[in-house]
Amino acid sequence: MKTKTLFIIIIVLAFTIKVISQTQDKPKSNESKINDTIKLNSVIINAVRTDVPLKEIPASISVVTSEQLNSFQKTIAADEALRLVPGIKVDNGTGGSRVHLYMRGQGVLSERGFRGIQVLIDGIPVNDPGGYCPDLYDVDWKTVKRVEVVKGLAASTYGGAANGGIVNIITNDGGEKPIGGMLYASAGSYGFWKILGQIDGTQGNINYRISYSHMQGFGYRIHQAFLGDNFSEKINWTPNDKIKITQLFAYTNYFNQNSEGINLDRYEKFGPQAANTDAIPWNEFQHTKRLTAATIGKFTICKNQDVQLKGFFRFNSYRETSNRSDDYRPYFNPGVSAQYNLHFGKENLRNNMSLGGDYFFESMNIHNFAVAGKDTNRVDSHFSKTCFDSNVMQINEIIYQKSAGIFFINKLDISKKFFATLNVRYDYTYNQLNDNLNKDTLNLSGSKEYEKPTYRFGVAYDICKSANVYANYGTGFLAPSNDELFNNPSCWGGFNSKIKPTSTQGEELGLRGDAGKNFHYDITGFIMNSKDEFYRYRVAWMGNTSDVYGNVGKSKRQGIETFISFSPVKSILFEIAYTYSDFRYVSPDSMKDHFIPQCPQHILDADVSLKINKNLTLSLHTEYQSKWYVQVNDSIYETFHEYGTTERNSWVPGFNIYSANLCYAFSSKKVDYEISFFAKNILDEHYFGFTEPNDPPDFNSYQPAPGREFFVSLKLRF
Question: Phi and psi dihedrals of 538, rounded to 5?
Fold first, then answer.
């Protein structure tokens, strides 16, 4: 860690402890703050399938508030929204909305999408039946009210998709007036701009919100342009105090050019904005179009019983080009969930039971064409979708996936201060592939199925207001899905027959609390042991079109996650998130004690917000990551030492960047205005936003992050 940053942190923490001791008995001086610190007594968490106070949940949970979401202004990707959540790492190497997201090291070797992280938008799962989450393009972060992040083995709640945790995204409802709305515009470096319009309100027993946004930019690097459209609609109908129906509709259209990673030689020769040598000649890009509709019903049967029902369907069209193929993947994904809740007992011994099930289905058609040579496909336009397919079809198959899970949750309130929770779940996943290309020759049709029970048990004890302790032990699994299962190392098409699920067990111990009215802290220690870890490699005859996956040995993940929120006076707020991670392979011997790639041992994010006067607020932010390992092991460098040295290629240097946001807010008649100026990476530090393991002669793939950036935004609320 840089000496300057470490010194600042120590001073801030020392000052924090001193002021807490002086202000605990003076609550009136801090009644008005620029942002509220989290309160254990008042925060209700929905991500665990029932509405439960945070202090009663025996698990590590972070809450991203609306104030935190509004404190930085680009608002197009999860790296901004989740920056103050310890234990979670979001890599944005594109400057747009395409990100890589990991939680406690789960899914770090995924080429695209997320593994082992259950993503919910207003309670509707984004993951497919196999647990794969393709992206977060459906989220317009300017319309999000808050985010709940449950870390650790939550598979007993949502299945293998939640092996590493849950990200529960809750969007805004409509306002209290019959008709209101919002207009938002933002623009900045590298041709970026975004506009958003929203109409919302409450008419009788109907609350509604309708929003649309468009954003685009050229990207920091060559051949990195992106554009996206988001339309979302949310209607809450409450005919009486026993029924609430929520109807959701969303449409997403997101396109991004893929400049890909580059090796260090290309980086040093052509600079950080260079694209991969394949990116431009073959016009490599990804294009996603998705429509989602859902209905959620909550019905109160009587005082102690209620039922929740969810149903959704999703149409998705995905296309990706590379130097070897043009891949088309349209699919249809419906799903239903049902849950019955029963509450009974006395005040000092109360039982809260839930029993339910999930069923999801997906049908995907894959057509993969070989592409013509680079001289034919050269494209210079930022948003061109031109790709010259050859007549050679490499893959023509239909994939069916379905999953079913049943779960039981029992929360026992033993007293007003002591709570115990048991989650048990059984999951079954079925995958079928129909090969339409090789019917008369080598038919690659087949099926795969996986089943697994999981559980998690924990206790929480509310010692006092300033100390809430919790502990849990659980099991989880991560089944192969999409890229792992359908990229066959033996030939084009068919299943990867060499891969099997990863199984995990682990435990947590945490302490959190509110000291006085203006200080909140949360510290968690955890250990996760996994076997049959996924790893990623390439097959020479496939070129760079895709990676394939297999299982390798065991791993041990252990770490500490800390969050502090502190407002010493009404005009200042400090927020600090720090993660220590020690993630290593345990076996086989050739990989023993090697660090798991892309997992820095130290990650720090810190904010300080200063309310200069009633209208003007200044926010300063720093982000630090220590160096991280690139490859699964370094034997590849020893074998091909003539291409580079181990010292040069094994580790990626860390970085420390600083950002600032100046916001001026005022009201005129019936309109609230907010003007913001945002500067990111003020010192123009050059660093890598994302890295991937690769084969020789490149060894590794580096995606340089943007340098200094400036943005301005205007929001009108009426």
Answer: -125, 150
- Mean pLDDT over residues 50-56, rounded? 92
Of all residues in the chain, the percent with pLDDT exceeding 70 is: 90
Q: What are phi and psi of 13, to 5 degrees?
A: -65, -40
Which pLDDT does position 6 carry in this prediction?
A: 39
* Cα angle 178, 182, 185; round to 5: 170
Q: How high does pLDDT run on average in the chain?
A: 88
∠101-606-93 over CA atoms, to 5°? Answer: 35
Q: What residues form DSSP beta bridges with 338? A: 309, 357
Integer distance in angstroms from the first to the last C-alpha of the chain?
Answer: 45
Q: Which residues contact 199 (CB under 8 A, 6 or more apart)?
A: 179, 180, 181, 209, 210, 211
CA-to-CA distance for 488 and 539, rounded, in angstroms?
Answer: 10
> pTM for the whole thing?
0.91
Whether 91 and 565 have beta carbons less than 8 Å apart is answered as: no
Q: What are the structural domains, with CATH classification, of the chain?
A: 3-717 (2.40.170.20)
Kindly write down the DSSP assignment for every residue of 468-500, as one continuous string.
Answer: EEEEEEEEEEE---THHHHS-SSSSSS--TT--
Per DSSP, 705 falls in state P
Residues 683-697 have a mean pLDDT of 86
Instruction: Check: CB of residue 596 under 8 Å from CB of residue 108.
Output: yes
Identify the CA nearest to 89 among candidates 652, 707, 625, 632.
Answer: 625
Pair 151, 510: CB distance under 8 Å: no
Q: Residue 494: what pLDDT?
A: 77
399 in Cβ contact with 366 (< 8 Å): yes
**Cβ atoms of 147 and 70 closer than 8 Å:** no
| DSSP conformational letter for 133 | B
